Amino acid sequence: MVRFALSLLMALTSVAGVHAQSFYNHNGSIMRLVERGDTIRISYETPREGLLPHGVRPGTVLFEGRLDAGLYLEGMSRIFSSRCEELDYFVYGQYRRDGDFTLNGAAPVLEANGCRVVDNTYEGSNANLGFAWLRTEGQRGPGGGLAEPASGHGSFCVTGVSTSLNMRAGPGAGFAVVGTLPANACGLAGFNRCEGDWCLVERGPDIGWVANQYLRRAP
């Protein structure tokens, strides 16, 4: 009986310590951030297509670290390579809950045809990990809507396609398809994030980029 009570208490404490899960765009990949007490884990929700040959899959952890005073985040990030084991390295930065943030560090540089670390660099995407906030569970993204021309609050519909519209992991036709939207589907929520002719939308559990020309404001 005592063992059961202790187990229940630990489970309740664990659940109570979980901050709402947040989603971010990181170099064309959709990321999931989970905050539990003063620890933070960032994993791939939908990896961009170029990471798949390197073994990155949904659920693969990119970063694990510790949060200090709710403002300063530090921990270990990872580099993935098809020919080598994962490499860990230290990154740090200011953390903005429900906002964009960047983690910086000295990223390892591998030799041209091997796995030996020959240098470190403070330049490039591995040394400067940018996370653009999309949404926190139960909340809208920044602005609650899409950027122009499909702008404003409320929902949007698919238009101008006969069968379905692809949702992609990044803003372009070269990114992996992460879902499809039926022709004339409505109820798409926007994040006020567009790059070029592509905008980020959400419908149900799916988040992805679609060509802006195929979106219209719902009546």
Radius of gyration: 20 Å
Strand order of the largest sheet: 6-5-4-3-2-1-10-7
How many strand units? 19
* Number of separate structural domains: 2
CATH fold node name of the largest domain: Lipocalin
Look at the structure and give the CATH class of the largest domain.
Mainly Beta
Order of SSEs: HEEEEEEEEEEEEEEEEEEE
Strand content: over 45%
Largest sheet: 8 strands, antiparallel
Helix content: under 10%
Q: How does the helix and strand content classify structurally?
A: mainly beta
**In the CATH hierarchy, what is the architecture of the largest domain at level 2?**
Beta Barrel
How is this structure best described in words?
The longest helix is centred in the N-terminal third of the chain and has 15 residues, at about 1-15. Residues about 1-15 and about 140-155 have low confidence and may be disordered. The protein is about 5% helix and about 50% strand. The radius of gyration is 20 Å and the shape is globular. With about 220 residues, the protein is mainly β.
Question: What attributes does this structure have?
Answer:
219 residues; mainly beta; Lipocalin; SH3 type barrels; 8-stranded antiparallel beta sheet; 5-stranded antiparallel beta sheet; 1 helix; 19 strands; 50% strand; disordered N terminus
